[in-house]
Design goal:
single chain, alpha+beta
Amino acid sequence: MNKLMMGMLLASAAAGTMAQTASAVDEVRISSPRVHIALPQERHNLWADEFDQVKGQYRLSNGKKMELSMWGNRMYVTIDGMPRSPLVAASPYVFVARNEQLKITINADDPYGPHGAELLMVVPRLVSGTLVNDVTQLVATR
C-alpha cells in the first residue's frame, strides 16, 4: 500500500512538472490591429430631419442604454453612467464624439429603417501599472 501511495505521489508530481513546462512552451500571442477613433477630415452637415431617423434610445450589447439626441443644431450621445458627449457627423449614419472616445455607425441597410448600430468606445485598462486605451466594440439595437 505504501508503494502504491508513493507511486501515485511521484506520478502527480511529474504530471505537475510537465504541465508547468508545457504551458510555458504553448504560449500563443495574438495581436489585433490597432483601431483609432479620429474626427473626420470633412464634417457632414446633417439636417434635423436626417438626424430624426437615427435619434432615440438604443440598447447596447453590454446591457447599458445609449441615447442619440439633438439640442438646437448640436447632436449628443448619452450612455448610462457617462457624461453626455457632443457628436460630429462624418456622414448621415456615422458619428464621432468630439473628444474622440466614441464612434457610432448606424446600420442604414435595414429595410425597416436604421434600427441597429455599432459603437466603438475607448476604454482604459490597467496593464502592468500603466493605463492603456483599448477600443471596445459594442452592438446597439432599438
